Structures are given as structure tokens and as C-alpha cells.
Input
Amino acid sequence: SQQGEEDPQALSIQEGENATMNCSYKTSINNLQWYRQNSGRGLVHLILIRSNEREKHSGRLRVTLDTSKKSSSLLITASRAADTASYFCATDLKRSYGNKLVFGAGTILRVKS
Amino acid sequence: GAVVSQHPSRVICKSGTSVKIECRSLDFQATTMFWYRQFPKQSLMLMATSNEGSKATYEQGVEKDKFLINHASLTLSTLTVTSAHPEDSSFYICSAWGQGDSYEQYFGPGTRLTVT
Output
């Protein structure tokens, strides 16, 4: 089963508004990453936040991490129609035979112009 | 940035036939690549980890004989769906770890497989 769970599952906002997506996970992590996927395409890496970081910014993106609550949020400010996509969080799961990324269920964001 | 390509982008095949999907790292060497499967409006499910020069490591529940993975070189991994059935229709995506100590995975654009 997927470690990460995201809410909301779908989010529809007007252009210019902010969009907030949340992710929860179950095990301890070294880092948490956010990816974006346009419909029918591969994933694009957005931002990585390490377990010892609480907040990180990249352009219009702001990610927070609360390891005590095992949760993270992705905020997109001043959204644009081009931000319409699915957004996934992913955690790095360590295994004896190699790490793997475990993805959350994703949030489908629709930004209306 | 690192680029990963997949070929073909779309394929339609008949039940019972086999289909090969290629994943290439274009500007870096990838000792490890990953194959994912994604159903419509769902998340990515890791199928297997492909290691150059050795056997792939499959996730629980993934049939090794059904999904053959070969990682013959540092820039190429292939996934062959053998004796395909309509339920194998899905979006298949490969990825590779970034270079150095990067935790970022670089993803291919995906392959849409439709089995009729």
C-alpha cells in the first residue's frame, strides 16, 4: 500500500488564488519530495525537503514538513492555469536491497482562468 | 538536467502478443532504473527496480515472468510485457536516480499500453 496519503484528492480554484495540498506518511523519512504530473505525461520533480528542514521555498512553491505529525504541505501561490496538473508527494523508503520512492495518492489540481 | 526517454510513447497490441518498452538515460549513466505502473487517476505503483548487469528486483505481487526487465547497459533498461492481456493496459513509466548524492528521480514521459 502507498505510504503517503494526500488531501484533497481534487482541488478546483480560480487563477490567482493559492492552492494548498497536504500529504501524510507513516514511517520515518530522510526526505520528502513533491512531483508534478501533467495529464498523460511523466513526473517532474518540484522540490525536496529534508527531514531536518521545516520549510522550503522555490519560486511560487512553499513546502512545509512536520515530522512530529508525519505530514507535509505544498502551497502554490498566485496560481495559473498552467499549474493544472496532478501533484504527488513521495517519501524515500530505505530497504536492504535498495531504496525506493513511495508515492502518495495525489491531488488533482485544476486552475480555472 | 538529466533526461530520460521512453519508446514507444503509445502502443496498441493484440491479446497474447508481447510488447517491449525501452527506457534510456540520455545524458547520464543510470546503474539503477525503476519501472512504475499507473492506472487512470491513480498514483504510481513501483513494479521493479532494474539494476545494470544483474537481475531486477520485483515488488511483491508483480509477476516476474509476465514483466521481463533487462538492464543491459548503463543507459538502457527494457520492460517486456509478455502474453499481454487487456488487464495489462496501463501507463508505464520508468525513472532513474539523479547523479551523485541527489535524491531526485528523473522520470521518462511514459508509455501508454492498450491491449485489445
